[in-house]
Amino acid sequence: MNKLPEYIHERMGGKLQKGQIADYVIVPGSQARIETIISYWDEHSKLAHHYEFLVHSGMLEGQAITACSTGIGGRSTSIAIDEMAALGANTFVRIGVTGGIQPNMQVGDLVIASGAVRMDKTSEHYVFLEYPAVADLEVTCALIAAAQSEGCNFHVGIGATASSFYAGQGITCLNGYRTTKMDAIASDIKAANVYDWDSETATIFTLCNLYGLRAGRLNVIVDDPNTGLYNPTGEETAIKVVTEAVKLLMKWDKTKLATNDEVMLPEYPPKIHASKTQGNK
């Protein structure tokens, strides 16, 4: 019997090897979004293009960084996380687009996930359903600090990861098909104070916690609640915020090595607000 490779995708079709993947990996779903992400780096090169996985590595302020597209949904996302982690990655920052669920959310707002409802199905193959899908504290704080420094409107809370874009989110399917189960999804999720939908976050959070890795997620709202149309306003800002968050994590990790601290968090209140407070005294 032929021995299967350790990883079925064999390092993205045999195109990758250890030493090429950085500790820090940005994971968008879209291959097209990779091009915008790497435009913020000092240098970059394409390492692999294997099915939905487009992988670039480069340098950001003197430190190595990688970006890998995941495609849509838990199955392909789990492959990306497994492959990147096997090649040395330890910190994953997911960036995506979404529709806001709560009434105070507008197009262009950022949604930073503190956790995710595990409706992704993929994570159920890894661990029992009661296991929580939670974000890493440091990565979440870095995203918050970066969003604050950029002056963005943002929300921090729980998202929901669905295995189906239509039926799984209670959206009527082709020819008006829907079931009674679908009728309650939207109202139940909203009542539970869930902030947004996506297809990947719960898978990423679950796997990274199981593997002892760090993960965080930032989505930008692109579904206009007034028109129902796709509005890309804010996508560039979201990528900039994620880039700044990775820079912060790089800085904090250096400080932890020097001080032998286990956790590094941002100053609070941040300096941009502290100066205003001091001025009011």
Features of the shown structure:
281 residues, Rossmann fold, ten-stranded mixed beta sheet, 23% strand, globular, disordered C terminus
Could you explain the architecture of this structure?
A hairpin with a 2-residue loop joins strand 3 (53-60) and strand 4 (63-68). This protein has one domain (19-159, 195-276): Nucleoside phosphorylase domain (Rossmann fold), CATH 3.40.50. With 281 residues, it is an alpha/beta fold. The chain has helices at 10-14, 31-38, 74-86, 137-149, 180-183, 185-191, 201-211, 235-259, 271-279; strands at 24-28, 43-50, 53-60, 63-68, 91-98, 110-119, 133-134, 154-162, 197-198, 214-221. Strands 1, 2, 3, 4, 5, 6, 7, 8, 9 and 10 form a ten-stranded mixed β-sheet that branches. It has nine helices and ten strands. The longest helix is centred in the C-terminal third of the chain and has 25 residues, at 235-259.
